[in-house]
Amino acid sequence: MGKLIANLRMYKDFFGGYIKYRKKINQASRWINKYAEVKGLSVNPHKMYLTNLKIWLAENEEMYGQRICPCFEATGDKKIDRQLVCPCTYAAHDIEIHGTCHCNLFGRKDLTEEQWKEQELRIMKEYRIPLKIEGKTVDTRNVPIDHYRNMDVPDPVHQLKQALNQLDGTFNMIVEREQSAKNIIQYCKLKNIKASYQQKNDIYLVTIQK
């Protein structure tokens, strides 16, 4: 699949999400700005990047019933998932280390334009890794770990988003955890895509039918 077509699909998904979640995007703007004001933080100044985060928050809320951080999938563990609800428990630590929270929604008040761009590039580099594709199967295992959260980066749902832009027709995804398989199914439902999974030995094989 050519890079141009993958990018066009990505933009189509962005504008589709914007239309679908316009009301939630406006609602998110209010609590995001209020939180930043109370905490003495700034909000990402780049409109398209910020809107994308709001779309992902809306998608996560629809999938999981709570606005899980745009950077991660739900774990199925209620305690951990509560910590991942945006603004997440980990945000203060990330801002102290990097100047922004992990997804770059919030940042220090004194961040420059160049510093915002640097952090966005850092996250895009983390998440836009080459997919491990063999034939029509994407293997989501053995990716880097965010050691502060002990979570995959990118997780299987983010790899699915990339795969949907790159692959045509039916394809499979190998995941380690059943919760990840369930999350993929939920995301596909949002996009009106058929998907199912089955356990095979110590892995779960998810079949996506575009």
From TrEMBL:
GO terms for molecular function: oxidoreductase activity, acting on iron-sulfur proteins as donors. It holds the Pfam family FeThRed_B. It comes from Tepidibacillus decaturensis. This is Uncharacterized protein. It comes from the Bacteria. InterPro entries: FTR_bsu, FTR_bsu_sf, TusA-like_sf.
